[in-house]
Amino acid sequence: MSKDQNSIKHNVEELLYTLMEASAEELLRRINTGEASPQDISNAIRLCKENDIDIHVKKGEPLDILSESLPFEGDNVVRFK
Q1: What are the residue ranges spanned by the domains of the chain?
Q2: Taken in order 75, 42, 61, 53, is the CA torsion positive or negative?
Q3: What is the C-alpha separation between 52 and 25, in angstroms, rounded?
Q4: What is the pLDDT of residue 12?
Q5: What is the pTM of this model?
Q6: Whole-angstrom Cα distance, residue 66 to residue 78?
Q7: Among candidates 40, 38, 22, 20, which has minimal Cα distance to 30?
Q8: Backbone torsion region of residue 34, taken as left when φ is above 0, otherwise alpha when ψ lies between -120 and 50, otherwise beta
């Protein structure tokens, strides 16, 4: 690979990193301010999944608290205990 090709590759990688960072920051801002649409939340989840970012829910964590406050009941409801 020539010096010019390396330079172009580096510039593209830097641009993609900047784009990813800006996208993540904007999604986080929308979520934190309550402006996030369902599509924004879906995009945030997809961004995490595609970058091998996951969490493990433990009792008392926000997802557990949310699951307890949802008004759904029935056989198909999964409760975190």
Answers
A1: 3-54
A2: positive
A3: 18
A4: 93
A5: 0.61
A6: 12
A7: 40
A8: left
Q: With beta carbons less than 8 A apart as the criterion, state whether 50 and 29 touch.
A: no
| Sequence-distant (≥ 6) Cβ neighbours of residue 27 within 8 angstroms | 36, 40, 43, 44, 47
How do residues 4-54 score in pLDDT, each as one tens digit? 888 888 899 999 999 999 999 999 999 999 999 999 999 998 998 898 887
DSSP assignment of 9-49 equals HHHHHHHHHHHHHHHHHHHHHHHHHT---HHHHHHHHHHHH
- Is the Cα dihedral 25, 42, 46, 67 positive or negative? positive
**Residue 80, both tokens:** 């975190």
